[in-house]
Amino acid sequence: MRLLPFTFTTLLVGLLVYGLNRPWAPQLPMAFGNFISPQHGFWQNAEPDQADFSGELRIPDLRGKVDIYFDERLVPHVFAEHEEDLYVAQGYLHAKFRLFQMDLQTRAAAGRASEFAGPQAVAFDRYQRRLGMVFGAENTLKEVEKDPVTKRVFDAYTRGVNAYIEGLEPKDWPVEYKILHAVPEKWSNLRTALLLKMMAKMLTGGTEKDLRYTNARTVLSGELFDSMYQVIPDSLRPIVPGGTRFPAPGVVPVAPASADSLYLKREPAAIVKEPFRPNPHNGSNNWAVAGSRTRSGAPILTNDPHLELSLPSIWYEMQLTDKSGTSYGVSLPGSPFIIIGFNDRIAWGITNSQRDVTDYYAITYQDSTRSAYWYNGKWEPTRLQVETIQVKGSNPVTDTVAYTVFGPVLYDGSFPEAHAGNVAVRWVAHDPSNEGLTFYKLNRAADYDDYVEAIQTFACPGQNFIFASKTGDIAIWQQGKFPARWRGQGMTIMPGEDDSYRWQGFIPQAENPHVLNPARGFLQSANQRPVDATYPYFIPGTYFTPRATSIEEKLEKMRGVGPEDMRILLNDCDNVMARDLRPVFLRNTREKELSAAGKKYLETFRNWDLQAAPDSEGQTIYQVWMDSLKAAVWNDELRQVTPQAPMPDDQVLAELLIRDSTSRFYDNLHTPEQETLADVVTGAFMQAVKQLEKADNEGRLTWTAYKTPAIYHLLKDALPAFARKDLPVGGYNNTINAVTHSHGPSWRMVVHLTEQTEAYGVYPAGQSGNPGSKYYDDFVTTWVKGELYRLWIMGPDEGADSRVKWQFSLSP
Question: Which residue, of 52, 687, 742, 810, has the greatest Cβ tally within 10 A?
Answer without folding.
Answer: 810
